[in-house]
Amino acid sequence: MLALVIEKPGTVRVDHVPQPQPKKGEVLVRVVQAGICGSDVEILNGTRPSDFVRYPVIPGHEWIGEVESVGAGVNDLLPGTRVVGENFRPCFRCPRCAEERTNLCESEYQEAGFTLQGAFAEYLCVDRRFLHVLPDTVPPSVGALIEPAACIAQGILELGVRPASACAVVGAGTLGILALSLLRLSSPTRLLAVDRRRDRLDAVKSICGDDVEEATPEDLDTDSQFDLVVVTADSPHAAATGLQLVRRGGDLLLEGISGDPIPTLSPDDMVLKHVTAQGIFGASRAAWSWVVGVVSKGLMRPEGLVTHELSLAEHERAFRLLLEGDPGTLKVQFVM
Asked: By CB count within 10 A, which of 111, 133, 223, 248 is most buried?
């Protein structure tokens, strides 16, 4: 099969590799569409922490596919069934797995697209336990957005977001717009998007609706009192902006990774504001199930997030679009 292989940082190629075969309990999935995440760019650049990648690797963890064939013991999926899949490979035995927080499994880190084969390939083998079925009414571009949406959903579930809260999102890229889309389901009294880029704020309006307020960091009223502030931007100053916006006793949800070792959050501000700060790494099965239900029922249709659909052969252009941050570029996906 054809696959995109990153041999080592800076070395990438599309090549023929052996097609996987489903073992007992596994499903062979034909990949239909797969999104490029910032962490895939990190793998290419060599900036992802060494504990969270194994070279050579076939990346790709945001995907949708169709069942091609099944291994022994899988009797509930027919060929052609549309599926998405979790990427963490938890042990199901440790204390975190017992809490159903499978994304925090304490055994050796294993994740498709990072230490195991990912979805930038024609086929992928997945344990049946990690697959979720989607109706054919869900467009492939939307199905391939379920993984990043599940990461946002994990934070919302952890904090137990209350209906009719005032919410702000710092960072209007893919994660930020997905956060705005999910938060709208809680009927917020106020919903604000913050980003330095005007083209991204314009995209918020077209995807999420005119009721979403927008502001650049320079235009912010930092006396605003938000019950919940979600930080998805990777700027080292984004978390500090979020802390400024959250009210006393409010919640701060941190989804963005800046890569900057210098702290930007003031411990004194957190103490004096009595803020609850929640960091998120990946998504549990509960978050996946929630988002699959939301998307399947048509409650969230963020098609406008996908600005480029390219082939694997166009991988150089695909990564360049993200590295250079071209105006108008949001989510780039490979179509197989």
From this structure: 111
- Reading the block at residue 284, the tokens are 């549990």
- Give the Cα-Cα-Cα angle 172, 175, 177 (nearest 5 degrees): 50
For the domain 155-279, what is the CATH superfamily, name and number?
Answer: NAD(P)-binding Rossmann-like Domain (3.40.50.720)
Residue with tokens 């963020």: 302
pTM: 0.94
Residue 53 contacts by C-beta under 8 Å, 6 or more apart in sequence? 42, 43, 114, 115
Residue 157, pLDDT above cutoff 80: yes
Distance from C-alpha of 127 to C-alpha of 144, rounded to nearest angstrom: 18
Condensed to tens digits (0 to 9), the pLDDT of residues 22-35 reads 999 999 999 999 99
Residues of the chain with CATH 3.90.180.10: 2-145+302-335
Model confidence pLDDT, tens digit, residues 121-138: 999 999 999 999 999 999
